[in-house]
Amino acid sequence: MTKIKRLEQIKADIITQNICPNLAKTAKHLVFGHGNPDADIVFIGEAPGKKEDESGEPFVGAAGNFLNTMLASINLKRSDTYITNIVKYRPPENRDPSSDEKDAFLPFLFSQLDVISPKVIITLGRHSTACFIPNQQISNIHGKPVQVDIQVAGTMQTWTVLPLYHPAAALYNGGLRSTLLEDFQKIPSLITNET
């Protein structure tokens, strides 16, 4: 089965298994993920926002535009990467996803990562970072790659995780913009080191 078909199956499983029905009820779309299934880099945010819910694609609003700018700063395009969120439905009023909602979607996220098999996972913001590197403040660990062991389908896998601030945070806090751009410059060497 091709990677695309395997990803489509994971998406279908979310719907069939009725994951987070309360969120599904208020969302317009299941925002599963978008990009290259053979990508070296997977970006993971927390949950879709209003624009993402309307389009069915992750990171299409202002934060997505800034993500595109940062990608361009290291000579990459969105199509070179795969972008997703932990939670696949928009929480009402853009509230933070709950622990239960994140826990419900995590196995599906790990399955996505298993299929794509990226060299580097980049967590965007505290919610996605905490799923891979718990009990740490993003302000202390941003821009510092960590090796993380995660069990997927009965097999222990080790992934390189680079925690970054969420692009939306830089839109509200100008000081974080330069920090994010600086942290982004570490990505090319991480991909090279993983080969």
Helix content: 40-55%
CATH fold field value: Uracil-DNA Glycosylase, subunit E
Q: Strand order across the biggest sheet?
A: 1-3-2-4-6-5
CATH class reads Alpha Beta
Strand content: 15-25%
Give the number of domains.
1
- Largest sheet: number of strands, sense, barrel closure: 6 strands, mixed
Query: Which secondary-structure class do the elements indicate?
Result: alpha/beta
User: What sequence of helices (H) and strands (E) makes up the elements?
Assistant: HHEEHHEHEHHEEHHH
Count of distinct strands: 6
The Cα radius of gyration reads 16 Å
Count, helices: 10
Low-confidence stretches: none
Using the alpha-carbon principal axes, give the shape.
Answer: globular
Our measurement of the CA-to-CA distance between the termini, rounded to an integer number of angstroms, reads 25 Å
Question: What is the overall pLDDT average?
Answer: 93
- The H-level CATH homologous superfamily, spelled out, is Uracil-DNA glycosylase-like domain
Describe the structure.
The protein is an alpha/beta fold and 195 residues long. It has one domain (3-194): Uracil-DNA glycosylase-like domain (Uracil-DNA Glycosylase, subunit E), CATH 3.40.470.10. The chain contains ten helices and six strands. The protein has helices spanning 3-16, 21-26, 50-55, 62-73, 99-116, 126-132, 138-141, 167-172, 174-184, 187-194, and strands at residues 34-35, 41-45, 82-85, 120-124, 146-152, 155-164. Strands 1-3-2-4-6-5 form a six-stranded mixed sheet. A hairpin with a 2-residue loop joins strand 5 and strand 6. The longest helix is centred in the middle third of the chain and has 18 residues, at 99-116. The chain is globular. The protein starts with a helix and ends with a helix. The relative contact order is 0.16. The mean pLDDT is 93.
